[in-house]
Write a structure and sequence with these properties.
The chain is an alpha/beta fold. About 35% of the residues lie in helices and about 15% in strands. The protein has helices at about 20-35, 55-70, 85-95, 105-115, 140-150, 160-165, 210-220, 235-245, 275-280, and strands at about 10, 40-45, 75-80, 100, 155-160, 175-180, 180-190, 200, 225-230, 250-255. Helix 7 packs across helix 8. It is globular, with a radius of gyration of 20 Å. It starts with 7 loop residues before the first strand and ends in a 16-residue tail after the last helix. Bound molecules: glutamic acid. The site of glutamic acid (GLU) has 7 residues, from loops.
Length: about 300
Amino acid sequence: MPSSAPPVFRFAPSPNGALHLGHAYSALVNQNICAKMNGTCLLRLEDIDQTRCTPELVQQMLDDLTWLGIGWQGKPRRQSEHFADYRQALQVLRSDGLIYPAFLSRSDIRRAVAAKTGPDEAWPCDPDGSPLYPGDERTWSQDKQDAVLSKNQKHSWRLDMTAALQRLPDKLYWQEFEEGDPAHSRNVIARPAVWGDVVLARSDTPTSYHLAVTIDDALQKVTHVVRGSDLYQATSVHRLLQVLLGLPTPQYHHHDLVIGSDGRKLSKSNGDVSLRALRHNGVVPGDIAKHFTFAA
Ligand code: GLU
């Protein structure tokens, strides 16, 4: 990045549930670092899950952010309006022989893993805890893939990790910067192999989080990604996709996670206290930081 270019940040929540304190913290860290660096902050709605992301939740999210004092430049980018961008990238990866259609359902995967492991053996899992893909479709010819695809069977598009790793020039790094000192960063070695044949799209959704976030950070010319440390390992996949698709690489800062009173990471699905509930209970934005708890 030329030194004259103003830094570009983005906050990228998924409006598939109410925002909670963890989102507030992430948005505020983004905003603080962005202000320190005289940057621009963008908002992106990661709404690829069209069943869970409702217009009401989107509106509530925008209201919560406005209440919190978070500002952004321009119109938020909604991923659901850009499926063509992700399809195009998938097409590039398919022409390069780097993805394949995978037909095993979740329960098929469980059964295949059980069949392939002995009683005391553990099947490797990715950093999110999902078993590495046990199917063998990556070895199928293109004709066989096309023949099965023509039957309209449900499938995922998976990255052929072994083939992808062979395209890498050398060791893969990303730059991780500190919140207090964004001008300085350290190199982190990316380890995409631990993810195995990661899912990049499904027959009913033309992208996964990994593909969409990588493409959007590039299309929105994001130079600094600030997000929770739960996505630290995922950065390895994003770095790999950047190389495979010829996209630029932002710098990254993965911040601590806000935890609940029981020590768990906050989550929408666990029904953790929403910003809306705090707001309705009289908490004012200036006091929100008093409600952040971090692991010791
Ligand atoms: N949409 C993701 C989330 O809400 C964040 C993605 C990112 O910042 O890369 O957890």
